[in-house]
Amino acid sequence: MNFKYDVIVVGAGHAGCEAAAAAANMGSKTLLITMDMNKIAQMSCNPAVGGIAKGQIVREIDALGGQMGIVTDTTAIQFRMLNKSKGPAMWSPRVQSDRAQFILKWRGIIENTDNLFVWQDTVTSLIIENKTITGVKTAMGVNFSAKSVVLTNGTFLNGLMHIGKTQLGGGRVSEPASFGITEQLREFGFTTDRMKTGTPARIDGRSVDFSLMEEQKGDDDFHKFSYLDFTPRTLKQLSCWITYTNEEVHSTLRDRLGDSPLYNGQIKSIGPRYCPSIETKVVTFAEKTSHQLFLEPEGENTQEYYLNGFSSSLPLHTQIEALQRIPAFRNIHIYRPGYAIEYDFFDPTQLKHTLETKLINNLFFAGQINGTTGYEEAGGQGLIAGINAHIKTQGGDEFILKRDEAYIGVLIDDLVTKGVDEPYRMFTSRAEYRILLRQDDADARLTEKGYNIGLAKRERIDLLNQKREEMNRIIDFTANYSLKPEYINEGLEKLGTSPLKHGLKLKDVITRPQVSIDSIAELVPAFKAELDKIPNRKEEIKEACEIIIKYDGYIKREQLIADKISRLENIQIKGKFNYEAILSLSTEARQKLTKINPETIAQASRIPGVSPNDISILLVLLGR
């Protein structure tokens, strides 16, 4: 039989699902190969999507026409907007999802997307001819041919799990590891290494004394991930719960550190510094007498809970004994212990910004294979890899997001320019243009881009245009409507802000920190009437207007800076220099520039070890 496809995606995690859906929706005949069709988009760790900076990525995926935001909104059992006490550049949406419903929703999307087909099997090797990928071979002995292949192997490449001295081969608990691909690619010259991550025990809620914990409820408002117009959170909304470790817990853990794979030499790979295991916390923060833990529900109709903050690879009996020292867990029962997992990844500096590999044409990497961690980081990479895999098969200009356009752009540029020395996680601090990359304006930044490449549908453009029209109308009204002191001062004083000494435009009053659009609308009937004309998504549009009005100066200033830097992004240098021959460059710069082979002067300037003086030399050689 003739098994021919335009795009093959290997692995059905969050990166694989977004890659496959994107390529198929853009028109490529796409095959998604997964070990287990019943675990499509499995949430291997906590049952949550979003969070600090990660929530921004999910909104960007949605704005471009991806699926993660839709799936998350429709399977949510709790929503929270984090960092609301800070400026809007820091606001980050986060959802607890029903794990089982999340899988079912994604599977429904995959199985009902035109051009998208699924095969349950394990890929054991790649078919490569003349440095170009032409297909894959599977454990069942099937050969599939393709014009492009996207690898999204997660933690499965030579995966090895650790629970104390017990070692189990696998990419997730009860799921086999994948062998052969790392070794094959290493022979082609790829650099690879090992990383480690971990997960906590899963707890039976019936054994927890919730009266000894602090309840954390979700938000009940208009916010959601997707920019499409639908009602989110149709499932029962549940609480998370907060508790703390104590000295007894820490003493138990310290006494058994010799049994920890992290400390007895059993694990040698690179672990996540920002998400340490509980035993690492006890050692690193020895002065702390307690650590905060979050008990998070796994679903609407299950007793399974995820214990955020208690990742561990200690022996089973040690984990249980330590947990029993926490009052709320004195009668604890668990479904399974925490464990650590080691797996292969590839140095992401071996990739182009499209996520195509430099060594093999039409082969793309996305997700943890690139040294990242997190569903959101994986989904963002998968989307970009799927888009560009389609473009390589059908023709067109490569699709790349810049650092001032999206957190996804920051993520990919960091990976391919700087590489990784630990599992990469996105933070707001990694983005130099945070005010431009807010979670509220991802649609304004990206939906037209998604539509122009054939991914975002007409519905999204129509919704964006309606939103812009309403925002412009409201903002123009505030810029032209004058307030007189005799009519407004009493109301302003009640809001805790100073009275007017003379007439002032409504827009200028809204910029005051004590004043919101809603509060001033109660004092200005004409303005309230304008707001009431908004036909739908009223709260979303009001919030977007308020952010633009209050932060207009900051936004414009940051855009000016971004525009100046973008001039360097337009200076192409790839293929123009033999860096080893430019002796005026530092030795480190020559080595790094040769290895990375940057596309532009701006990318070169972000390479660790390349100094401003090195950049000046390159500019002089270019005649700039």
TrEMBL record:
It is found in: Cytoplasm. The keyword Transferase does not apply. NAD(+) binds at residues 271-285. Pfam families: GIDA (PF01134), GIDA_C_1st (PF21680), SAM_GIDA_C (PF13932). It comes from the Bacteria. Belongs to the MnmG family. This is tRNA uridine 5-carboxymethylaminomethyl modification enzyme MnmG. The gene is mnmG.
